[in-house]
Amino acid sequence: MGLKIYLDGKLVNKEDAKISVFDHGLLYGDGVFEGIRAYNGKVFRLAEHLDRLYNSAKAINLCIPFPAEEMEQVVLKTLRANKLRDGYIRLVVTRGVGDLGLDPRKCPKPTVFCIAGKISLYPEEFYRLGLTIVTASTRKNIPEALSPRIKSLNYLNSILGKMEATLQNAPEAIMLTKDGYVAECTGDNIFILKDKILKTPPTYLGALEGVTRKAVMELATRNKIVCQEEVFTRYDLFTAEECFLTGTAAEVVPVVRIDGRVIGNGHPGKTTLKLIAEFKKLTANEGTEIY
Ligand SMILES: Cc1ncc(COP(=O)(O)O)c(C=O)c1O
After folding, report:
1. Average pLDDT of 107-122?
2. H helices within the chain, ranges in order?
């Protein structure tokens, strides 16, 4: 059976899931999206993903044509149509079809689509051995221009960072704010453990409010690990006891080397391993039932 895609109210075959070249999502990156994960017949933190989607839309004054409860059904329906219990979901709302001008008022109807498919997992050794990553020279978009808290279709900033990572054979790159503070990675949030305190940059600096980030902060608190949002620099990364990244696709993944510096003892740390195990338990047990 081929992949079924939800597109503007219908489930269509992958080959028929086409949108106009006049769609402003394509012409200008004018739209918002979510990357969501299903585990063991349940969608992880679906309500939080939908909240972020609707908030991102609100921030760009894009009116999603139906409420979040209906969007939840779109996600579940797409998963069911593809008989999935585990998988990755890409939910997208674009400004819709307009003319060649920027004016969103020329786009009367947003385009909504949802893709649900198998997830290509990170290699197992990433978790066992930890990642070697680099800092990108491309700075994070300044929040005053395009807030990184908006999960918009305009991902060029992250793509430029990712290209720098790839050039150095690294799976991820850290992105700094214009002032040189650590913001996040190109598609993941970042945490360090220093003096036994877990720290992650505040999102107002210019980072996405990651759903995994929030889950890990909750898990830390539940496990009596002090966790706080704090502004820090590359010096703090290099001298951290532990470091890890969080994201829907990556989950919780250890980092053992940054820009040639060994982090901690060069192996995934105890706290990181604990949080990986706790996160696994959480995703196995919590979520919106698909069937
Ligand atoms: C730039 C960026 N930061 C962080 C994340 C992690 O967010 P989440 O845990 O919600 O997947 C993502 C994932 O989409 C991202 O694109």
Report:
1. 94
2. 24-28, 46-59, 68-81, 124-129, 156-167, 211-222, 234-238, 270-285
